[in-house]
Amino acid sequence: MNEFDLLKSSLKKNETTGKPSFTETIEFRIGMGLVCAILLSIYTLDYLNFNIPEWGDFLMGMGMVLGYGFAFSALFLSRNAGKVVISPKQISVNPKKNPEKYPSSPIHVNEESEIRIYLIKSITFGIQRTLLHFQVTTDGNESNFGILLKNKKKHKQYSEVLESWYRAGFNVHEFDQLGSRIFKLNQGKNYAEVQKIKHEYGIEW
């Protein structure tokens, strides 16, 4: 069994293109809204030729720093909404609040299940952070949840989970932010890799 942090994310699909998009946490939306408001204020004042005193520049600069910090703290501090425990044939979603949002937990997965995994965001500068959204359909019941991979150990555990599913012949499809197929987060990006993966794991691409 492997344990990951539960990620607060929700999946939406574009009615025209069918491509998924993701709603970030409230912390991220507020933070980025603050940053956008400050940037808009700066450009407006500059366009209208207002002379901003030095203390005004300082306050706006600090506001941007705090806004970005508040927004991206979602990647480091506020993402732990509970735990997701994944074993080869079962997924348990254990939120800290509102367990009724996950009535299907534990989710039993098998060869008949459809497992779609969407890469929301990945940061590898100095520290690894990967945000993923799962869409699991078993016996006609669809379950949605997100997980955070917050270090190398969690990335390795996640890779082991995928390895066991692929080897067992489970119906797994991974997608990057643009909706293109990927394999274990960063493989399958060229023809040669795809052919090797198909041959080794016996999967359709």
Specify the number of helices. 4
End-to-end Cα distance, whole Å, is 28 Å
Rg, nearest Å = 20 Å
In spatial order, strands of the major sheet run 6-5-4-1-9-8-7-10-11
H and E string: EEEHHEEEEEEHEEH
Broad structural category? alpha+beta
Average pLDDT level: 78
Helical fraction equals: 25-40%
Into which percentage range does the β-strand content fall?
A: 25-35%
Query: What is the molecular shape?
Result: globular
Number of strands: 11
How can the largest sheet be summarized?
9 strands, mixed
Q: Which parts are unreliable, with pLDDT below 50 for 5 consecutive residues or more?
A: none
Brief write-up:
The chain is of the alpha+beta class and 205 residues long. It has helices at 26-47, 54-72, 152-167, 191-201, and strands at 2-7, 10-13, 20-23, 82-87, 90-95, 107-108, 114-123, 129-138, 141-149, 171-175, 181-182.
Structure notes:
The protein has helices spanning 26-47, 54-72, 152-167, 191-201, and strands at residues 2-7, 10-13, 20-23, 82-87, 90-95, 107-108, 114-123, 129-138, 141-149, 171-175, 181-182. It is globular and about 65 Å long. 33% of the residues lie in helices and 31% in strands. With 205 residues, the chain is an alpha+beta fold. It is built from 4 helices and 11 strands; from the N terminus they run βββααββββββαββα. The longest helix has 22 residues, at 26-47. The strands form 2 sheets. A 9-stranded mixed beta sheet has the order 6-5-4-1-9-8-7-10-11, covered by helices on one side. Helix 1 runs antiparallel to helix 2.
